[in-house]
């Protein structure tokens, strides 16, 4: 990727059923759960817009009509939004494969549709880091205490990925510690279009699902440069009632801090 090239596209997997948030998600997509005054996916689109993204593809599916009703063409979020359907939920890699023809050879942002990340400006930092490294994949990483729910990445001293694993137990995760921390793939990153070749080579794992983490690890093992950018802000996936409770408290706190900063 030439350093002057602009990253303008984002792919947003948003087809999951959100079963851990039932019965709420029997009535609405989890991406439409409200955080503050807007749906969580609204926060994502605002962050993408702030990062200079002009076109987003939402990979959606089961009972997601309200998602289209809420976002529409993307005009209210100052971007062009497109949609494609993932008929069967077969993992994050399988979902992202639906974006291949739309991406059309460009580097692009991926971000999961149930992510809440603050500050929004982290995307600008991630894009700049990706360009500096000229990597084939740059992952947003966030320290976590419990690695078992996440994809975990080990970095060397130059920010280059030295290995990664999806949802390890504690024994498996031990060798992926970076300076005493577990670094979680925080549901966002930048990928070159090379990723689609490796998704096609990825073997299904648990629950017969094809995970994006495994595809990126194949890319890394094939000699492609994969990097990680560590951020110390706040990130939650709106996947459980506990995380939803936490993000509500965080959002209120963040807005109060913002008002204080602005002198409101």
Description of the molecule:
This protein is an alpha/beta fold. The protein has one domain (9-262): Spore Coat Polysaccharide Biosynthesis Protein SpsA, Chain A (Alpha-Beta Complex). 33% of the residues lie in helices and 26% in strands. The chain contains 10 helices and 13 strands. The strands form 3 sheets. Strands 1, 4, 5, 6, 8, 9, 10, 11 and 12 form a 9-stranded mixed beta sheet that branches. A two-stranded antiparallel sheet has the order 2-3. Strand 9 and strand 10 form a beta hairpin. Helix 8 (195-201) crosses helix 9 (212-221). The longest helix has 22 residues, at 241-262. 43% of the residues are buried. The mean pLDDT is 88.
Compute the separation of the termini in Å.
43 Å
Q: Work out the helix count.
A: 10
Overall spatial form:
globular
By CATH's scheme, which homologous superfamily applies? Answer: Spore Coat Polysaccharide Biosynthesis Protein SpsA, Chain A
Radius of gyration: 17 Å
Relative helix content? 25-40%
At CATH level 3, the topology is Spore Coat Polysaccharide Biosynthesis Protein SpsA, Chain A
Spell the H/E element sequence.
EHEEHEHEHHEEHEEEHEHHEEH
CATH class label: Alpha Beta
What number of domains? Answer: 1
Give the DSSP E fraction (strand runs of 2 or more residues).
25-35%
Biggest sheet layout: 9 strands, mixed
Regions with little confidence, pLDDT below 50 for 5+ residues:
none
Oligomer: single chain
CATH-level-2 architecture: Alpha-Beta Complex
Could you say which structural class the secondary elements and strand pairing correspond to?
A: alpha/beta
């Amino acid at each position: 990727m030439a350093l002057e090239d602009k990253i303008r596209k984002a792919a947003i997997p948003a087809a999951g059923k959100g079963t851990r948030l039932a019965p709420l998600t029997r009535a609405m997509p989890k991406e439409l759960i409200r955080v503050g005054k807007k749906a969580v996916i609204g926060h994502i689109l605002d962050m993408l817009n702030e990062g200079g993204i002009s076109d987003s593809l939402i990979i959606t599916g089961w009972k997601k009509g309200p998602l289209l009703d809420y976002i529409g063409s993307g005009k209210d979020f100052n971007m062009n939004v497109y949609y494609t359907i993932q008929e069967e939920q077969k993992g994050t890699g399988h979902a992202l494969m639906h974006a291949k023809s739309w991406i059309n050879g460009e580097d692009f942002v991926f971000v999961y549709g149930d992510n809440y990340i603050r500050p929004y400006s982290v995307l600008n930092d991630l894009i700049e880091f990706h360009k500096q490294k000229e990597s084939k994949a740059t992952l947003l990483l966030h320290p976590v205490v419990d690695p078992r729910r996440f994809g975990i990445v080990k970095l060397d001293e130059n920010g280059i990925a030295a290995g990664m694993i999806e949802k390890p137990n504690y024994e498996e995760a031990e060798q992926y510690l970076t300076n005493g921390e577990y670094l979680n793939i925080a549901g966002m990153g930048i990928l070159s279009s090379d990723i689609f070749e490796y998704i096609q080579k990825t073997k299904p794992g648990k629950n017969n699902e094809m995970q994006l983490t495994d595809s990126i690890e194949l890319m890394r093992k094939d000699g492609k440069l994969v990097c990680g950018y560590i951020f110390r802000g706040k990130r939650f996936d709106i996947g459980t009632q506990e995380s939803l409770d936490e993000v509500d408290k965080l959002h209120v706190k963040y807005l109060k801090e913002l008002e204080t900063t602005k002198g409101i």
